Amino acid sequence: MGSGWRKAKRALGFRFCVFIPRTQEDSVQSVGNDYQRLSDAATASSKSLLLSPLISRSGSRSSKKTCSICLTSMKQGDGHAIFTAECSHSFHFQCIASNVKHGNYVCPICRAKWKEIPLQGPLLDPHPGRARIRPVNYPQNDPLMTVVRRLPQRSDSYRQMAQLLYAPEPGVFDDDEQTDPQPVSTENGSSNKSSTRAMEIKAIAEVSAAPCSQSYDNFSVLIHLKAPSAYTVQNPSLGQTNSTQDSQTPRAPVDLVTVLDISGSMAGTKLALLKRAMGFVIQNLGPSDRLSVIAFSSTAHRLFPLRRMSDSGRQSALQAVNSLVAIGGTNIAEGLRKGAKVMEERREKNSVASIILLSDGQDTYTVSSSNGGQTSPDYHLLLPLSIRGGEGKGYHIPVHTFGFGSDHDASSMHSISEITGGTFSFIETESVIQDAFAQCIGGLLSVVVQQLQVDIKSVNPSICLRSLKAGSYPSQILSDGRTAYIDVGDLYADEQRDFLVLVNVPVENSTTVTSLVKVKCAYKDPLTKEIFSLEGEDVRIERPEVAGEEAVSIEVDRQQNRLQAADAMAEARTAAEQGNLAGALSVLETCRRNLSETVSAKSSDRLCIALDAELKEMQERMKSREVYEASGRAYILSGLSSHSWQRATARGDSTDSSSLVQSYQTPTMFDMVTRSHAFLSSTSTAPKPHVRPSWSFSSHHKS
């Protein structure tokens, strides 16, 4: 057996030689050189395969099912880690590591020279210039997994980037800059200012009257909420009113952490557009806002701590962002871990906090692709516990995710946003990235309501709450069946939320009116820290002995349509993931047909028109497996994210509010996107999309 193995090794032509840098300077220099080499390769061809040693960017693995060294089967979950080289050939990790230990770093099959080498060794802090990489199915705490990189020598700029990524960081991220002791809300003499901060709340029954002799099991009651407009301040001496975008206007300051993918596939145009988009974000944050930037590829590094965006803070932030260089794999989990650490360990806190995550690839370090298997990836592994939404506790640090291009993992990005209470945006066209960021920060810079909780109570002992239709918002009906609540959290200025409560309506013999439910809400003003309570009027319906045919409230009907369309999108996506595209198309077509027969459709309701257009677009993106994989999945998931949170997302190639699928866009989002277009116009002669004023699903129901 031993003699045969030696002959096999000689036949494969193994060479026993290995080079490992001996000094920290040599090693860091080598990492910088690898940045240059892979960045050049990515720039030369945006379609080139930038393979990590674990898995390709597309998530496809080697088709070989047998390890070419030990000639036994390779299956995930059989207790053996699998190593996939950049040449796409796969081996048992223990088998190939045993050979590499003796200096072999060419592929035994195709003779390709490897740039990333599997090596067994003790779990030590990696030597500068070496990245520790685990196979996708290898135990998280196994001490044997490392990868040693052989890297040639190249330019100084990439060495500097390597030094930045591998530079020591403080053990605790409590070095955030002090929050503004005098935020804008106290400037220019607050005694001369007045502000109105009132939410709107109303409840609408499905019909206004129902025969007293008839009962209903699932009678719909719509709860409609609208946040106050952007903070406005009236100066009596000047007779002028300012909006929230004005630098002297009070608003809640923001702590923002951006977690940015700088893997090899981001090289070239993508990274240049990301830098420009980040420049726009930095320029539009105020001196009371604080920003920290995390850059991640195979590892992650904090470019700078939470820093106020004063003139000097902006200049430092711009310099740090402009120094980014693309290289390596995609370790989303490590990027989020650093981002969450910044938020969790900050000494001081601004009123609003959020994380923005952008990636164009798939995490190749923490979550394995199921490849059509029975087990779905556990995307919770990508998120630190500190930023996951707790049951019944709402969401404290939402992560707004942006999937960039056709190769990103839309399922993981959508899951991250759903778990944390953020939104998922699909950036199909590279040039839209700045507008997508602008729309997001336009909302974050206009938060006017926090910790919003809605309470619904039955006012009649015979009325029971059957169910709540609240999308992704945490909601619960208590065991008595008469009390329920919805945890809404933050609202941007002018945002609206619509929820349906289904109740039973009994036969009424003693009175001509049936009282159904009472709705109230409580919330905090993030600027003044005041707590407000607001109570709506009782929802009642007339109970005549004989009632004519009552038309269903168009407000209720349109929300029923929205929920029906969202359910169809989710069902179609499930069918598509199971390989049943014909079934997915049928689900969407049935929903379109049902919507066309509703009261809203017959009234030319714009929401109904928008939903039909959206469903039709999804059908187009599900006509083939190739199209679905390239854009259909991401388009549907961004749509589901938008409808489940009732919040605007970027979808496809547009953030334009004139698009029928951008109807959750608020005025402040619209203003920031308009500002983005102006910024682009000042730096480019390329034509920019026309922007129309935004409209709301709730306030405009006819074309």
TrEMBL record:
Record CDD domains: RING-H2_WAVH2 (cd23114), vWA_C3HC4_type (cd01466)
Keyword Nucleotide-binding: no
Start and end residues of each RING-type domain: 67-111
Keyword presence, Metal-binding: yes
Residue ranges of coiled coil: none
InterPro entries: CLCR, Vwaint_dom, VWF_A, vWFA_dom_sf, Znf_RING, Znf_RING/FYVE/PHD
Region annotation (Disordered) ranges: 170-197, 681-703
GO molecular function: zinc ion binding
Domain VWFA residue range list: 255-441
Residue spans of biased composition, Polar residues class: 180-197
Keyword terms, alphabetized: Metal-binding, Zinc, Zinc-finger
Protein name: Zinc finger, RING-type
Protein's organism: Dillenia turbinata
Lineage: Eukaryota, Viridiplantae, Streptophyta, Embryophyta, Tracheophyta
